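Researcher: Last one for today. Full complex below.
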Amino acid sequence: MGSDMTNAPSAKGRDSVDQDQFLTILSREEAIARFEAALFPREISSEPRRLSEAIGCALAADIVASIDVPPFDRSNVDGFAIRSADLASAGEATPVRLMLNDEVIACGTAPTRPVLSGTATAIATGGPVPRGADAIVMIEHTQPAGPRAIEIRRAASPGQFVSYAGSDIAPGEALLRAGTMIGSREIGMLAACGIAQVLVARRPRVAVISTGDELVQPGELLRPAAIYDTNGAIVAAAVSENGGEAAFLGAIADDEEQLEAAMRRALATSDMLVLSGGTSKGAGDVSHRIIARLGQPGIIAHGVALKPGKPLCLAVCDGKPVVILPGFPTSAMFTFHDIVVPVLRRMAGLPPRADAKVTAKIPVRIASELGRTEFVMVSLVEGDGGLIAYPSGKGSGAITSFAQADGFLRIDALADQLTAGTEAEVTLFTPHVRVPDLVIVGSHCTGLDLVTAQLSRAGIVVRSIAVGSLGGLAAAKRDECDFAPIHLFDEKSESYNTPFLGPGLALVPGWRRMQGIVFRAGDARFEGLDAQAAVRAALADPACIMVNRNQGAGTRILIDRLLGEARPDGYWNQPRSHNAVAAAVAQHRADWGMTIAPVAHAAGLGFIPVAEEHYDFALVTARKQRPAVQAFLAALASEESRAALAQVGFRVA
Ligand code: AMP
Ligand code: MG
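Model: Here's the assembly. Have a good evening.
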């Protein structure tokens, strides 16, 4: 296998190996085909397990029932076992009287007396039907008629309320097929047949290692410039979800010796090794070099035409898959699910994953890189003509996109875009679509969460999709949302928001956000000044660095007005959020910038007010009577939200 591999690193020096990287980018399909060819067919070893320990395992062989279930003809109700022919003439006006036999058949009691014509035997739900009887009459449909008799005023069909022996499961019937993942339902079926132990595929042991000097485990203190290890938890959980037994071995520093030792230890006791990080062309990226020394055939693919996920590295070392996932958590997750899960499931004896899929319309054009299979996370909302899928990714570094997304769509490597209006297939993250009750599309504000918190507590599912003010207005005009939060300033009328509404939209006042200059408290260049004076002071000091905002942001307009023609150091640093500005100043990467008061205060920064911005809601009036819309309006007006908004520094309109 290895001889035709131009991208397999040899034991050359470090620099030449680094240059070899990504020389051969395989297509997704080619990478999968080569990986699977190197791994399969393979023996799937099995082991017997007691039922209580078999949950989550795949059955290694078909299970055939060896007994009847139920094992005897059984009563389904509390009542009387009778002969249906005796009741042929029974009616409202012509009751039939039956003599009671001298026994009561409870559950677990074997009957001793036959039911002869003209008699009945009391029987409980689950009791065995006695000889002679062919139907059961419910106790509610009988009347006592003296000490040893009952009266019945309706006919009974033969077999009524009887479950026949073997009607549930008959001997020889295939109960469960090999490959079935054992859950509580399967355990129930096995228990009903008296099966205490089953042969299951041995769960592949998957060692999981994170790599990177910057990684800290959740629960530990985050030191400066460090981040929490997300991939370790994601991969271990996804392994368990797909039939494997995960052994998380922690995060290893980017040190060739340490990493090689850890990888060798992991492989010695595992069937598969999954690493993450260290696949990009960084000085500390070493794991792919180590793989070349771990076994044959070694690296199968290093660089796959996936987005996100290009640095994915697939290897097989002496029969065991070794995978290096890209470092960014969303990239790691997509590549793991798309490429590694199918292999893991096959090794675990499970059938391919059956993901739920729906068709949805794309409301906006999605650009895609030609030549790479691209995954795009989407949020689903209900539109006029069916489901609508909003792309919700924030880039491959963003993990929160996963929480807000309902699923993803895959754009073919040969497509350079999906045009607005395209119908696309969405693979759901969950078995069913949960269409939100309330849809808010537009500009996001932390204050919004304070209002919707009330709705969530009331069980109303709120979906908030951040696409900016203009994107929100467009969605509202297409009737894709209930509200579009906007903060748009109209220079002509010198007013906010109202001039931008069109027909079918009405303004619901939200709150005011004070925009101002932020600096580190105690910075003598700014302390005590007004905005004009503060900017003059900043421009007068060549060592003073600013942080700007992106073109199109309302905040940017204010900054440009204050700066005039000046372009101080830091002007081209243009993050897209209020929080990023505060973080840059707090962490000394910049000395001043402009953000909103609540964010400045939360970050403990000094603040010089500049102008108040109106954050309001464009309501799609046709939807006003919907219960969730009414609930939002009530929450917005409630004392609770007003107090919560005021508390963090918003001024309620
Ligand atoms: P790398 O491939 O090691 O260069 O990593 C690419 C990016 O992913 C860097 O920003 C890493 O900090 C980040 N990253 C790598 N591993 C993890 C992890 N286990 N959890 C979260 N982020 C990670
Ligand atoms: Mg790294």
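DSSP finds 16 helices and 38 strands in the chain. The two ends are 69 Å apart (CA to CA).
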